[in-house]
Amino acid sequence: MRRGMPAGPVRDPAVPRQAGGVEAAFRLLARLRGAPVLHPDGLMCAAELEVLDGGERWGVPWLEGPGRYAATVRLSRAAGLPRRLPDGLGLAVRVDEADGPGRALDLLLTSSGRGRLTRHLPLPRADALAGPYSSLVSYRVSGRPRVLAAFPRPARQAPVHGDPASLARALDAGPLVFDLCAGAHGRSWRAFAVLTVRTALPVRPTESADFDVYAHDARGFTPGPALAALRRAAYRGSRAGRRSGRL
Questions:
Q1: What's the CA gap between 45 and 27, in Å, rounded?
Q2: How much is the CA Rg of the chain, to the nearest whole Å?
C-alpha cells in the first residue's frame, strides 16, 4: 500500500447525519398523516408476473427460463393531489418467492420518461397508463447497472386517473398489463417479464405492504448504491411513524 493512501473507501461523515435527519422527518410525517409519507393513498391489487423466455441471458436465478409468480401491486399518487391534476404516480410490486420460498422481491417504480436522461427523472402524470414507470436509479443485474421500467399496454378506457377509485373502476373493465423492461446506459429497453394486475384487494387506501427494495431483493438483482443510505432511512422512518400512529 502506498504511504498516505487510505486503507479503504473514503466515507462522507455527513451521510449518517443526513440519514438520521431523513429518518426522523419521515417518522414524524408518517405519524401525523397516519399513512406513508409519500404515496399516502393507493390501491392494493392481486397480480401475477410472468418471466419471459426471450433468449436474453440475464445471469439472475429468478430470470433464468420462463416462470409464473403471484404478486401484489400497489398503484398510488405521490402527493395525493386531486385526481385530475398531474402527480407523481407509483407502481410498487411484490413478487412472491421470486428468490425461493419465503424470499419475496420488491420493485418500486415511479412515473417517468423513457429516454436516456428522462428515465432517471420523476414525471408527474394525470393518466396512470399514459407512459412508463421507472426505478429512476440503476439496479445491479448480474453485476451490471440497469434501470428498470414498466410500460403499460394500451387500455380500452382512457384516461385512467391514478386515484384508488378510478383505478378500481378500470380494473372492473379488465386487467391492467405492464411490460417490465431493463435498460443499460445508452441502450434500448429489453423486456424480461409481463405484469398483469387483475383485481383490487379489500384493504384501506392508506394500507401498504411495507414495500422495501433493500429488505426484499434477489440474488444478482439488487438496487444500486445511489442514495441507498437516505432511501433506507426514509423507509425506516415511514414504517415506524405509521406503526406508532396506529397505537
A1: 26
A2: 19
